[in-house]
Amino acid sequence: MLTAQNLQPSGPCSARHQGYRCGRQEVRLFWVRAHAGTTGNERADELARNAALKKKTAADYDRYPLSYAKKVIRAASLDEWQQRYTEGGTGEITKCFFPRVEGAYRVLSRFTITPPIAQP
């Protein structure tokens, strides 16, 4: 198995997540084929399922409502989208209709995007 530190960064997420540490513990990410008969996969799924069902402690997000966390994440996502949209050299006609991504987001959130809709 490969750890994230052994992979060549292929995007902003992989570069950003390399080398994360939690106190003195190093965080290592592993890629495992999902449900392809890999030994241990089914056992890992079973353990995760049991832990999720039997957890008797308070939710990890109990300091503020989950709806607030979703709102903060959505706002950060829209800010990053706006920055890329503004700096991008493509989509000039689209920018005439939607100068801000919030307008596009409001319209797009009403649709279920499928491949035929995204790429007619």
TrEMBL record:
InterPro entries: RNaseH-like_sf, RNaseH_domain, RNaseH_sf. Residues 1-53 form the RNase H type-1 domain. GO terms for molecular function: nucleic acid binding; RNA-DNA hybrid ribonuclease activity. Pfam families: RNase_H. SUPFAM superfamilies: Ribonuclease H-like. This is RNase H type-1 domain-containing protein.
